[in-house]
Amino acid sequence: MGLSVTLSEAIIAIASVILASVFSAYAIYAGAVLQGNVVQNLGSIKRNMYTRVEIVYATIDETTDPNHFVICVKNVGTIPISRYDDLDVYAGEYGKAELYRYSDYAEPGSGFFNLTDADGDGVWEVGETAVIRAYPKEQANCSLYEVKVVPFRGIPSTYLFSKP
Question: Are strands 98-102 and 112-117 parallel, antiparallel or unpaired?
Fold first, then answer.
């Protein structure tokens, strides 16, 4: 009787140690996964903060048919932008702005935009102002316009203006 009680206590003690070890190993694993996710999310948020643009001026150029939008945008982030096709440009009547995609060959009536950086080297450097020309497919004619520039995984900028 004494041996069976001692043996039972030994089995229970061994099972308790194994269970505690399994639980602590899982807790350490879950903590490491959580830490990895937090670090990855913080890195993504930090990268998003590095890519930032600010619209400083926008107007309508009436020298083409149909008229087109001229948007002056400054790179106020901390990294240069070289992939212009990652930018989304919205322009048009306030509340009804249309999306324009990048094209080197954008022209009046095409529905695309092109971008020219200040020094013309094809890289939109930090602190540099670029000129975006967005060409609507139809004549834009309203009293209040809005333009919005949205960099991929970055902070967008919006600007409201009226016809000159």
Answer: parallel
